[in-house]
Amino acid sequence: MNEEYGTFTAPDTVRLERVLPGPIERVWSYLTEPGKRGTWLAAGDMELRAGGRVELNFRHSQLSSEQESTPERYKQYQSGHTVLGRITRCEPPRLLAYTWDEASGKATDVTFELSQRGQDVRLVLTHRGYDSREDRVSVASGWHTHLAILIDHLNGRVAPNFWTSYERNKDEYEKRFPAG
Length: 180
Prior knowledge:
Elements: E1 7-10, E2 13-21, H1 24-32, H2 34-37, E3 53-58, E4 81-91, E5 95-100, E6 108-117, E7 120-128, H3 133-154, H4 162-176
Antiparallel strand pairs: 1-2, 2-7, 3-4, 4-5, 5-6, 6-7
Helix pairs in contact: 3-4
């Protein structure tokens, strides 16, 4: 299940499922603690309560020790970028939901659902609110790449370069979800 591609469950919604090594509290800490979250997604403060502030500081080049230049079309993110939101639901250690990119005026919604499965943890990530196919493909590719890096960290492996992995995943999502 860890390499399965996400699905578009509604015109504006992408959903990905992964099985991660547990326990659930460990996975929760990688979603909520800035230092751990910064190893696979983005560091930044998160007030763990409904209405709490979310700040995600992305530094894609720091997600792997394998260095590569940033592709030209993503150069604006080379020095990093920040996404702001608000927590809409927080039920430790099983559910975390927040708005994504409120500053853009077109905030979307991200939900992480965790459930213990023996020694493992099932994670369901749902991201809602993207109008265009291009945005949905980009978001699905990004989450696919970030979750693969999380799995590598949880398993004590070195993660590959973010941009190389993202580009490969984006090509695959483009094929799986053609225009029209």
